[in-house]
Design brief:
This protein has no helices and 42 strands. By secondary structure, the chain is an all-beta fold.
Length: 501
């Protein structure tokens, strides 16, 4: 009975369960008058449901036709390791039609007789402080099989960012992967439910969201990127509007022409999105579903010098063939970074620059390491929040590892805003230097600029006290130059408006 229970009761009347005989016949008796929910299930089939209303003394038929049952196979993990004896289910924990099972010693599980369509799979393990939970949405084909991975995590704080994903007609889209991008917190991901909704518990402050449609392979560019969402503003609606993708093809090879299964790291300027792909064993690659815009690519393979491809502009539907990208021999650069008092900076950016090429180091806990980069002379740029940026020459020798430690001092902060006219493009760069000298600080930024609208890009620079020349430019030929004084206590905003050279 689905009638309202009396005060102090859980249900309006006891549930009634019966089994069919050899001919499929059954009779359910002693049902309470009023609204009744009927569910039928059998091995090898998905459940069938029906609702009806009974008058006192009335008999009504319910002749269910059971659909083919689907299967879900998957694995339960915790911190990447398989977990055994975990309860896995589709449906409410105590419902009659819920499909249940437990994971095996290798974390694997199989749920049978699952209804076709978009269903929510949940797993629970432990109690109290040891409790862990996992949840995802999968699409089960009628009579077919679907796969899923369940990663157990501790229950977190209540969600403070909620939303819904819909298509261009406003119809909810289930099974979308929604992931966060936050500067000061660990990124998290979830899957939209059957009504397209999702929820996150995140720190306060703006957050970027990426949405991948169901079945979109990982890694892949997102179908939608939305920036600077404020959780305090209430639920958000994310609209998946189809775009005409571009495509990038090419081949990675060594100096002798042999194919290499290298990686292709892509940075999309307008979307501020980073995605990494891997080439096939013969070095060939084809990057499909690339959003139109401006991209930077870095092609790498362990032990060889990487090849950058900068400012690659792609129109909707365009095919860009990069040909063969040959990776030659190179050297590596690594070392330690120390700030004031000998402490390791929490955050630090290290970039090697030469002839328009830029290579970025991986920094962790006071140490850095560059991937193999081509032999030659570079300028090493080092910067970090609260630290004065430095630059000095460095030479890289082929097949050689070079150690170079770096010491940084406290810097002065200035915020610099670069104004982009409507026709200046969607990204810009900014460099600071002592007039007439090499670069001391270098950065790039992107916007969500709309055609015909003036926009701004904001940079934050930390420099040693002194006077510098600021140079801002765009790939479309716009530029601005201005002198800037960095002095303690002077935090006035600086604005530069680029103009066509």
């Amino acid at each position: 009975s689905t009638a309202t229970p009396p005060a102090g009761a859980d249900l309006a009347s006891p549930p009634v369960r019966v089994r069919t005989d050899g001919s499929g016949q059954y009779t359910a008796q002693r049902l309470a008058p009023g609204p009744v929910a009927c569910v039928a299930k059998a091995r090898g089939h998905g459940p069938a449901r029906h609702s009806l209303t009974l008058a006192p003394g009335q008999s009504l038929p319910f002749d269910p036709v059971l659909p083919p049952g689907g299967r879900i196979v998957g694995r339960v993990t915790r911190d990447g390791s398989p977990v055994a004896d975990v309860r896995v289910r589709v449906g409410p924990a105590d419902a009659f039609a819920t499909c249940r099972t437990e994971s095996g010693a290798d974390g694997a599980f199989t749920l049978v007789d699952v209804a076709a369509g978009s269903v929510t799979v949940e797993a629970d393990s432990g109690q109290g402080a040891a409790a862990r939970h996992a949840r995802t949405v999968v699409d089960v084909p009628a009579g077919g099989e679907a796969a899923c991975e369940l990663e157990l995590t501790p229950p977190g704080p209540a969600p403070n960012l909620r939303g819904r994903v819909v298509d261009a007609t406003g119809k909810p889209v289930a099974g979308c992967r929604v992931s966060t991008r936050m500067a000061q917190a660990k990124n998290v991901a979830t899957t939209t439910s059957a009504d397209g909704t999702f929820a996150f518990a995140i720190p306060s402050g703006p957050v970027d969201l990426r949405v991948h449609r169901p079945g979109r392979p990982q890694p892949a560019f997102a179908d939608l990127v939305v920036r600077a969402i404020d959780p305090a503003a209430g639920p958000v609606q994310l609209v998946l509007v189809p775009f005409t993708p571009a495509r990038i093809t090419g081949r990675i090879a060594d100096a002798h022409g042999s194919g290499l299964p290298g990686t292709i790291a892509c940075w999309h300027h307008e979307r501020a999105e980073w995605v990494q792909f891997r080439a096939a064993a013969d070095g060939s690659f084809g990057l499909g579903d690339v959003p139109p815009g401006t991209l930077d690519l870095l092609v790498e393979h362990p032990g060889l010098a990487s090849v950058p491809v900068r400012e690659l502009r792609l129109a909707a539907g365009e095919l860009e063939d990069l040909g063969t990208l040959s990776l030659g021999s190179g050297g590596t650069l690594f070392g330690a970074v120390r700030g004031p008092g000998g402490m390791a900076p929490e955050q630090c950016d290290l970039t090697a620059v030469a002839d328009g090429r830029r290579f970025h180091a991986e920094y962790r806990g006071g140490t850095y390491r560059f991937p193999t980069i081509p032999a030659g002379d570079y300028t090493l740029l080092v910067s970090g929040a609260g630290l004065a940026a430095v630059a000095f020459p460095i030479s890289i020798v082929a097949d050689t590892e070079k150690m170079q430690d770096v010491e940084l001092q406290t810097g002065v902060r200035r915020e610099i805003r670069v104004v982009l006219p409507p026709d200046a493009g969607s990204s810009c760069g900014l460099a600071l230097r002592v007039a007439g000298s090499t670069m001391r600080w270098l950065d790039t930024g992107g916007t969500t600029q709309k055609p015909g609208v003036e926009t701004e890009v904001t940079f934050v620079a930390w420099m040693a006290p002194g006077t510098y020349e600021a140079v801002a430019w765009t790939a479309t030929g716009f530029e601005a130059r201005q002198g800037i004084v960095f002095a303690a206590g002077d935090d006035r905003e600086v604005r530069l408006t680029v103009a066509r050279k």
